[in-house]
What does this fold into?
Amino acid sequence: MIKKIGILGGGQLAKMLCDFANNNGYETMILEPSEDACAKHSATRHLAKAYDDKEALKELCDYSDVITYEFENVPSIAIDFIENLKANIPQGKNPLYLSQHRIREKNAVAKYGVKTTDFLEVRNKESLIKATKKIGYPSILKTCTGGYDGKSQWKITNKNDIELINIEYGEYILEKMVSFDKEVSCLVVRSINQEVTCFPLGENIHKNGILSMTIVPARIEQSLEKKIKDIAKHIIISLNIVGPLGIEFFIKGDEIYFNEMAPRPHNSAHYSLDACDYSQFSLHIKSIIGDTLPTPNLLTPVVMLNILGEDKEKIYALKESDDTKIHIYKKTEWKKGRKMGHINYIGSDLEKLINLARSF
Ligand code: ADP
Ligand code: MG
It folds into this structure.
């Protein structure tokens, strides 16, 4: 009987996972170095130690019936250590290994016939100049590892932009910019019993590289929605991944391009907390403990709006109601551009919800 869940990481995804766990009779321990990690407010216990601290990892293993992670940059030696202690970490390190590196993840899915944006590897300024000649404009340079919320990315629209980029020797990817019609994501889940299911697609709108809004149902043809869900399932099965996997796609005409993936709950599926019969956190836990995976149903149209640090005054002035669900992550510092919470607007008229979110 699984009762205690160990989580590597202590951000908002861990917090919401702990909230779900608390409401469903589980206990949780997070391993997260930061003393004021927001998940500490919801976890039963918080080990404020480094991810590779062997004593802390041992304590986590002793405590937990099952261990999972809430972000992709957990060092792989932590997973090795947990596996050596024969603790139960069903997702293993493979999903982390793949998703920690932008070129590796694109090559991994391309191997199974999934189309990605055109890209080249870049090491320094010289190879950037060469790569740009092949890829053309507009293109986007990203660090291969560690980037999130549009950070460590440079848009290149002309020769002048290249001159302004100052990069140290390292691992970068230069991608062709896709002038997409729509950006969507799919949260697909695969259980330890190989059952696979996915959430309705979210249509995503980014501002300054950060997810701003997710609209569900995505305003695309049903046949296209099905095609993308099938690609997401094909990816999770082919890569033999267990647990939740958030996959981002660009749609251009009939073409579907894989952008990136993350083996954890995904910001764009937070709508499931208020608009589905099962949330992504529920299916995350079910998938790693071997419960039957239900197909989550959308109960109502929904628009999820992210709350950033600069929205502090506005969010405290907003009233929660049956159709305006406010989630605040209890992070201590309200920094500009930092994700602090989200709102789920629910109701029958999707366009009205979009306008409500826009006028926040
Ligand atoms: P992050 O890890 O920061 O989410 P992404 O690769 O998803 O990195 O980039 C953030 C956003 O920037 C994307 O959601 C998309 O809006 C835009 N973007 C990134 N790469 C491309 C691309 N090749 N073509 C068009 N837009 C892109
Ligand atoms: Mg992204």
Observations:
- Residues 248, 260 surround magnesium ion (ligand 2) (CB under 6 Å).
